[in-house]
Amino acid sequence: MTDMDKGFQLMPDQASTVAGPVDGLYFFLCAVSAFFTVLIAALIIYFAIKYRRRSEHEPPPPKTRTDYRLELTWTFVPLAIVMVMFWWGASLYYREYRPPQNTLDIDVIGKQWMWMVQHRSTGRREINELHVPVGRPVKLLMASQDVIHSFYIPAFRVKQDVIPGRYMTLWFEPTRVGEYHLFCTEYCGNQHSGMIGRVVVMEPAKYEAWLAGTTVDEPPAIAGERLFNHFGCATCHGQRGPTLANVYGQPRPLADGASVVADEAYLRESILYSTEKIVQGFQPIMPSYRGQMSEEQLMQIVAYIKSLAAPVPAREVRPAYE
Ligand code: CUA
User: Fold this and answer.
1) How far, in Å, from the CA of 136 to the mean position of ligand 1?
2) What separation in Å is there between the alpha carbon of 144 and the centre of ligand 1?
3) Which backbone phi and psi does 162 adopt, to 5 degrees?
4) What is the Å distance from ligand 1's center to 189 Cα?
């Protein structure tokens, strides 16, 4: 059971070295706020009742003299508490935003609407997924191709805006093997809510094997489904975009008035030359995957799209990540 399939949780899993300390500070702030909220509200009610005006003819109360001990107490006690908050928060901030030496460095590019990741050692790429080894500090070097995005992994308690025109960095050290949510948390256009993915924390040996690109034997349609998610296709072709269920083998009306049958060749061409033959009613916004997919991967994805056209029972296109 990982963070990904637990449904609603009050707090995300704690899966990095800073997650525990961040939560500690968070609960301290909540406890202080709750304590003073209750205390002040109770005192307001108590004094309002105790010193209420009892009749129309009651004389006003006598003037009170300032008690400096009281003034000093409610000045310095809150000051001490907020100074604790300041030191605690600032030291945690420095820890979270100053990467240690010897990090594993990974490149990340945000663009509408996907996260593109490349691992430096082997050049392996992934989209809307981030594979990392457990127990090792990881530093992301991040850039944006278009607008501001924000890279957020709740289980790690880290978040960093990615601003066009400059490099941003983010580091973390995962402490638990598992799969965790990855979100874009800066509104970046009409598919912003689809700019989601997952972080896969693996044992170091498994990570090395993954980096080397070792794959297991599986039917092409199954491999294709994995690639469909891996390359971020499901971001747009999931529930809300042009769905790919029952597309294979059907005639497709094109924007220029022509019509083509969605066979294997058409599907392959649409992935590689994505802005060439646009189906009526859609914009040419899909990125080209030329040079990013091998012919083998293309065949697997086409096999997956074919499998979506199975007559009965119709299979739904699953959203990328749940
Ligand atoms: Cu990218 Cu929101």
Assistant:
1) 27
2) 10
3) -115, 115
4) 7
Hey, what's the torsion of the CAs at 173, 177, 181, 186, to 10 degrees? Answer: 10
Direct distance between the N- and C-terminal alpha carbons of the chain, in angstroms, rounded to an integer: 13
321 has a pLDDT exceeding 80? no
For the segment(s) 10-42+69-216, the CATH number from 2.60.40.420, 2.70.70.10, 2.60.120.620, 3.40.50.1820 is 2.60.40.420
pLDDT of residue 245: 80
- Closest atom of ligand 1 relative to the 149 alpha carbon: 1
Q: Which CATH number is 220-307 given?
A: 1.10.760.10
Contact between 128 and 114 under an 8 Å Cβ cutoff? The reply is yes
Closest atom of ligand 1 relative to the 148 alpha carbon: 1
Q: Which atom of ligand 1 is nearest to the CA of 110?
A: 1
Query: Do 10-42+69-216 and 220-307 fold alike per CATH?
Result: no
Which residue ranges make up each domain of the chain?
10-42+69-216, 220-307
Is it the case that residue 44 has pLDDT exceeding 50? yes
Residues with CB under 6 A from ligand 1: 110, 113, 149, 184, 186-188, 192, 195
Digit-coded pLDDT (tens) for 224-270: 888 888 888 888 887 555 778 878 888 888 888 888 888 888 888 88
Average pLDDT over residues 183-190: 94
Q: What is the pLDDT of residue 239?
A: 59
pTM of structure: 0.65
- Of all protein residues, whose CA lies closest to atom 1 belonging to ligand 1? 149
Position in ligand 1 atom list of the atom nearest CA 185: 2
Over the chain, what is the mean pLDDT? 86
Q: Distance of CA 314 to CAs 19, 232, 245, 261, 305, Å?
A: 43, 23, 8, 20, 12
